Hints:
Layout: H1 5-15, H2 23-39, E1 44-49, E2 53-59, E3 68-75, E4 80-87, E5 90-95, H3 98-107
Amino acid sequence: RLIRLSDYRNRSRRSNSKVFFNKPELSQLLGLYSEHVARGDYRDYAIDHLDEAAMFSMFRHAHESPLLTVVKTTDGKRRRTSFLLFQGEKRLLKTQSLGEILHHVRSRPRLVRE
């Protein structure tokens, strides 16, 4: 069986286009999640990866939809990173800084559905 290296290289390049949270970003997100766990707001989280986005979602209960979701996206052409904050399906904020997202969440009153 013949294996073309060019086919392998093209596939590996495509797989590198996925967006991930880096270690400092993940640490900040887990810190925010921990604060909310300590207050009793959240009890579960999920990390999802798509080709164009990485998502960190926080849940009150594992069987419900997420209360907050932080999405990291990258513009493939310019490699510019953007962060979005969603409460359910409603977009609350779009910025190029995760710090702004975290500040926004911390400065708002509790974002918990009763």
